Backbone:
């Protein structure tokens, strides 16, 4: 079972919720950005539950064509449709007495949502092409990176289904909201990949460590794991610094995409923050990351600039730009 790591209060709370949910056995909805560990949580739930000896069946909803999801989930009888040459068990059947994990449930289309709701209401289902009703004994765990409340408002997701799957909810925070875990996650994945690739690397330098602790981690723990893997495979810190620079320049090019489901005030705040971030990044680049000169050019105090750099999740690229920094800047 993959371990759910993290010493922060946020992660301790998640582990406690996982323990409680695993004993309660009620439907669980796991939410969180990509790479925050939703699959890890689902596997932990199953392994900590009394169903651990039974199967854990995972369905990745977006990877299945809409036309196939229904037969994939509920199975079919021979002759149910063209090409159905023999009877086939669906995922619900395979998960009987065990756990069914529907990953990215927000991607299910309306007809499958309706059928799933029916199953959750009646605890019965039938295979496609069959009238025989079968009892359902599954523990349902769902996950999504989407905001299902917004999808309900936009009539993309059924509210009655939402209440059935969201009896217990576990929300995973983005890594930038529990940066205190970055150090231990780095150490863990470093050990793991050193063992896996049979290599030993020097510990990360203080300056790269600072970069990583200040970074905004758009890809969350998965991104951190990939960075460490890259470090172990390529064998030098420059690999990490380059990856961070690429990510920074990609996000500084990003455009604000309006979201019709959010209030104007929040969207405007986000747009302004994104613009401000780009302005600061451009000024920093123009002044080769000399923060005093950048602050002067933007007509704000040095302290205000440092605060804004941190607030915008920009790394303090001292290591990457050390050649460009003035001696006074390097001493700080
Ligand atoms: N708290 C954690 N402790 C240890 N490893 C973690 C943790 N969170 C995530 N990971 C690791 O990060 C990677 C991504 O995790 P996972 O696949 O569970 O994320 P996810 O939220 O399901 O992402 P996606 O939405 O893209 O499917 C995995 O390799 C997983 O082992
Ligand atoms: Mg996942």
Residues:
């Amino acid at each position: 079972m993959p371990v759910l790591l993290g010493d922060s209060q946020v992660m301790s709370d998640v582990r406690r919720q996982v323990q409680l949910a695993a004993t309660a056995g009620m439907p669980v909805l796991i939410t969180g950005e990509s790479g925050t560990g939703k699959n890890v949580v689902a596997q932990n739930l199953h392994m900590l539950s009394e169903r651990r000896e039974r199967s854990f069946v995972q369905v990745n909803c977006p990877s299945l064509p809409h036309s196939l999801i229904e037969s994939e989930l509920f199975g079919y009888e021979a002759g149910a449709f063209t090409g159905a040459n023999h009877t086939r068990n669906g995922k619900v059947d395979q998960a009987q007495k065990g756990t069914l994990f529907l990953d990215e449930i927000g991607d299910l289309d309306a007809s499958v949502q309706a059928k799933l709701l029916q199953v959750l209401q009646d605890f019965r289902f039938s295979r496609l092409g069959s009238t025989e009703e079968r009892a359902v004994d599954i523990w349902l765990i769902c996950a999504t990176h989407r905001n299902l409340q917004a999808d309900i408002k936009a009539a993309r997701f059924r509210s009655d289904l939402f209440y059935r799957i969201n009896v217990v909810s576990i929300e995973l925070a983005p890594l930038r909201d529990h940066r205190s875990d970055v150090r231990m996650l780095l150490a863990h994945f470093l050990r793991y990949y050193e063992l896996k690739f049979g290599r030993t690397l020097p510990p990360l330098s203080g300056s790269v460590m600072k970069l990583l602790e200040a970074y905004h981690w758009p890809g969350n723990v998965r991104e951190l794991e990939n960075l460490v893997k890259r470090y172990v495979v390529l064998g030098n810190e420059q690999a990490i610094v380059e990856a961070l620079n690429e990510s920074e320049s990609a996000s500084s090019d990003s455009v604000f995409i309006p979201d019709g489901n959010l209030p104007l005030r929040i969207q405007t705040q986000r747009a302004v923050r994104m613009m401000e971030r780009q302005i600061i990044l451009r000024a920093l680049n123009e002044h080769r990351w000399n923060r005093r000169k950048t602050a002067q050019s933007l007509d704000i105090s040095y302290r205000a600039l440092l605060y804004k750099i941190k607030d915008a999740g920009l790394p303090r690229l001292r290591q990457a730009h050390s050649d460009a920094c003035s001696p006074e800047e390097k001493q700080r």
Remarks:
- Residues 29 and 169 are 5 Å apart (CA to CA).
- The chain is about 50% helix and 10% strand.
